[in-house]
Amino acid sequence: MHVIVAGGGRVGSQTATHLVDQGHSVTVVESHEPTADRIPESDRIEVVLGDVISPEILERTPMERAAVFAALTGDTNANVAACYMAQTGPGSIRTVMRIGSDDEREYDDHDAIDAVVFPEAVGAENATNQILRS
After folding, report:
1. CB neighbour burial string for 28-61, b if at least 16 within 10 angstroms, e if fewer
2. Which of 7, 119, 132, 134 could form a disulfide with 72 if both were Cys (CB 3.0 to 4.6 A apart)?
3. Residues of the domain holding 66
4. pLDDT per position as a tens digit, 108-126
5. Minimum mean pLDDT among 15-19, 50-54, 83-87, 117-121: which range?
6. Which residues contact 96 (CB under 8 A, 6 or more apart)?
7. Residue 65 is part of a domain; what is its CATH number?
8. DSSP string over 63-98
9. How high is the pLDDT of residue 122?
10. Distance (Å, rounded) from C-alpha 55 to C-alpha 125?
């Protein structure tokens, strides 16, 4: 499966690495060149430098072969816009969007967003499980 990940920071690059480890290919779109340069090199990870909500940049991504578009930047508004843009592209694509706070879970009900992730909540749950582990 091919996945497009918007955002190459901690969450995006870790997600891309996990996907590649599981046999998938990934295109990471990152606007900040120093951040893009830190994305692990792999023959299964392609990096596109640019703003994910720019139509010109989205045209440079292989949307037609992607099964999932994951907007994982630290900017919730950019993530919403990117998911809407991905949904208007060719074919049917599943969208996953990162939110920055628990207050933003209402995005789960938007037409262009199939799933919402809140990394801090997942991290806290994992930490709690490790703390309480006997």
Report:
1. bbbbeeebbeebeeeeebbbbbbbbbeeebbeeb
2. 7
3. 2-132
4. 677 789 999 988 888 888 8
5. 117-121
6. 68, 69, 70, 71, 72, 113, 114, 115, 116, 117
7. 3.40.50.720
8. GGG-SEEEE-SS-HHHHHHHHHHHHTSSS--EEEEE
9. 85
10. 37
